[in-house]
Specification:
seven-stranded antiparallel beta sheet; alpha+beta
Length: about 525
């Protein structure tokens, strides 16, 4: 039976899939989005985004204001349960609805991949694809299109400073903030940071209600949390759940954020809204969901409030955000690597590559080191390191605990400025499972010209990988360059044989594949 693969989808992308399917009007709820297609509700005669939104709202039935209240049968919550009603009443007025609009440029359609001798080739080359941008009835030579979206945010200071997601206001020329008292303000985007997905807005108002900021340090897995936002445009909607996990890494592109995972129902329009703990304090900004269907399936992720507040402080102070950089590429330590490096357990961040002349290189870090601690905090997963580095500032001096040659050492590094990217996560080269087998590699020394091209003094070219061998099962490929075994550089076949002979269960091969260097665990016993 085929295994279903789930894909993590940012909230910002879901609404356009719904709009394309005719489920959701573009004005009915999502975010500021790139490459958006404005689609009215399929059963509506509306011809404009505004009409589509009106048609959708008209379909919602609300109770009469003077209708008789149901019989009082309220049962107080059990001891220890949070009073969600009190949190919503006290903090809800500081939660805002954000509407955005703007235009983005479109490009002309490319010529279809057809044979140049085809009689229609010249037509498509000159006029483009009918109905597509750049083609007949499709906007001429590119052009522009309108974008509309909705999201959420929350007020953090009484003079009108608001936090939300960066993707909510991306590409927006106009941002309108609506309060719970129905007042509307045009907002100025003070700044945004794509790498953490945090944006700071400002409206001209005074004496506004504000949220109370909490902390995630003492937040426990299983603790109750509450979200307030505008899912699908339904303003000030409340949903509740628990903290499912802390410190989640969602991949290399978002490794700076140690996400909070919850089971709170989050949908398009919730993006940028606050996540409250049981004491009514904001502990995160709702940002993404994980879904195989495109809808909420019980997994949602929030940006910790400490990350958001750091971004806010930097933007308010200088208008831009700085991120620290260590200058290493790291990968996960699995059981095979733990056996190879003689670690008690598979934990830490394995240094696969060190940026030349970067902060790590200047501090003496090298490939094969396993980072176990950073600024006194334990590194369990490789994803812990980039988030901890990003919580520092360029120029900070930090102590790094590493595992090298079977013992612990402490190295002091001065962090650099990340500019665009900080520590990276490397993907392992393959599966390390296997039976008792030889390494199965045919090796030869590198020629002088090859060494110059690769910029290395060490290494052996892997000419062949034995079919069914331990190295083949681990993902080693012909053409890879073997640089080190268990962290020790190799220059001869004899060195490799000696290292493999002395290994008990597995060996960690550092290979260079193109411009990338990765460790590959090979099970040999």
């Amino acid at each position: 039976m085929a295994q279903q693969v789930e894909k993590m989808i940012p909230v910002k992308k879901l609404v356009w899939a719904l709009a394309a399917a005719g489920v959701l009007g573009a004005a009915g709820g999502a975010l500021a989005m790139r490459n958006a297609k404005v689609t009215p509700v399929s059963d509506s005669a509306a011809t404009t985004p505004a009409q589509a939104g009106e048609a959708q709202v008209a379909a919602v039935t609300t109770p009469l204001a003077n209708a008789a209240a149901p019989a009082a049968n309220f049962t107080p919550p059990p001891a220890g349960m949070p009073d969600f009603a009190q949190i919503a009443a006290a903090q809800g007025p500081a939660v805002v609805n954000i509407s955005v609009s703007g235009t983005v440029k479109t490009r002309a359609a490319r010529v279809p991949q057809i044979d140049p001798d085809d009689p229609f080739y010249e037509f498509f080359r000159r006029f483009g694809v009918p109905g597509m941008p750049g083609g007949p009835n499709g906007g001429g030579e590119g052009g522009s299109r309108e974008i509309r979206g909705q999201g959420s945010g929350f007020i953090v200071s009484a003079d009108g400073v608001i936090l939300t997601n960066a993707h909510v206001v991306q590409d927006a020329q106009e941002v309108v903030v609506k309060l719970t008292d129905r007042r509307e303000f045009r907002a100025k985007v003070l700044g945004s940071d794509k790498s953490t997905d945090v944006a700071v807005l400002k409206i001209e108002a005074k004496n506004l209600p504000t949220v109370h900021l909490g902390a995630t340090r003492d937040l426990r897995v299983g603790e109750w949390v509450l979200a307030i936002g505008s899912p699908f445009g339904f303003e000030n909607s409340v949903s509740a759940g628990v903290i499912s996990a802390k410190g989640r890494s969602l991949g290399p592109d978002e490794s700076r954020v140690p996400f909070l995972q919850t089971d709170v129902a989050i949908n398009p329009g919730n993006s940028g809204g606050p996540l409250f703990n049981a004491r009514g304090e904001v502990v995160g900004i709702n940002s993404q969901i994980y879904s195989a269907s495109g809808g909420y399936q019980g997994l949602s992720f929030a940006i910790p409030v400490e990350v958001a507040n750091k971004v806010r402080q930097q933007i308010e102070k200088g208008g831009k955000v700085q991120h620290a950089k260590l200058g290493v590429m790291v990968q996960e330590v699995n059981q095979g690597f733990a056996d190879s490096f003689k670690l008690d357990r598979p934990e830490g961040a394995l240094v696969a590559n060190v940026e030349e002349n970067g902060p790590a290189a200047k501090a003496g870090l090298r490939s094969g080191d396993v980072i176990l601690g950073f600024k006194g905090q334990r590194i369990v997963s490789s994803g812990d390191l980039p988030a901890l580095v990003d919580q520092s500032l360029p120029g900070d001096k930090v102590d790094i605990e590493v595992w090298r040659n079977g013992k612990r050492e402490t190295i002091t590094a001065t962090l650099g400025d990340a500019n665009e990217k900080g520590a990276k996560l490397a993907k392992a080269g393959g599966d390390a499972d296997g039976d008792h087998a030889k390494l199965g590699l045919a090796l030869r020394p590198l020629q002088p010209e090859e060494r110059r091209q690769l910029g290395t003094r060490d290494g052996l070219l892997i000419q062949e990988v034995g079919e069914g061998s331990a190295a083949a099962r681990a993902g080693v490929r012909p053409g890879d360059v073997l640089l080190a075994v268990n962290g020790t550089p190799v220059q001869s076949v004899e060195q490799v044989r000696g290292a493999v002979k002395g290994a008990e269960k597995s060996v960690a091969l550092l290979v260079q594949r193109g411009a990338d260097k990765i460790f590959v665990p090979v099970r040999i016993g």
